Amino acid sequence: NDLLWDNSTGAYIDNPTSTLHPQDGNSLMVWLNVTLPERKSQILANLKENWVEFGAQSPEWIYNGAPGIGTFPGSMEVLAHLSAGATDDGLQLINLTWGYMLNSPNSTASTFWEGFQSS
């Protein structure tokens, strides 16, 4: 648990030689309750720093040269917020990402998207 913890950011790095703080890995640490209790709020705050107009950017995923919003890792983040009792944040992220998919003029009014550019 300590090997990948980055105390300066309040999140886990991807591997011992990385500087990447992955959305999926950090979300799973909270959702599956495998991090220390005092780290959960730090991880959730770090994840929330990646939120933009249409959802949470996935630092590990670049789509057409720009940061992307992935629905699979985004769903893990939703579950992390909800499992930690941050219900408002979890629901807000659902509204941002899946609400955008349902209402976007570039869409079929469905939530079947795998991901999209965040800008």
Could you characterize what this model shows?
By secondary structure, the protein is an alpha+beta fold. It is 43% helix and 18% strand. The chain has four helices and seven strands, in the order E-E-H-H-E-E-E-E-H-H-E. The model has no long low-confidence stretch (mean pLDDT 93).
Task: Give the topology, please.
Blueprint (H helix, E strand, L loop, with lengths): L4 E2 L4 E2 L10 H9 L5 H12 L2 E2 L2 E2 L1 E6 L2 E5 H13 L3 H17 L11 E3 L2
Antiparallel strand pairs: 1-2, 3-4, 5-6, 6-7
Helix pairs in contact: 1-2, 1-3, 3-4
Succession of helices and strands: EEHHEEEEHHE
Tell me the helix content.
40-55%
Quickly give the structural class: alpha+beta
What's the main sheet like?
A: 3 strands, antiparallel
Task: For the record, give the distance between the C-alpha atoms at the N and C termini, rounded to a whole number.
Answer: 34 Å
- Basic shape: globular
Question: How would you concisely characterize the structure shown here?
Answer:
It is globular and about 45 Å long. The protein is an alpha+beta fold and 119 residues long. The model has no long low-confidence stretch (mean pLDDT 93).
List keywords for this structure.
alpha+beta, two-stranded antiparallel ribbon
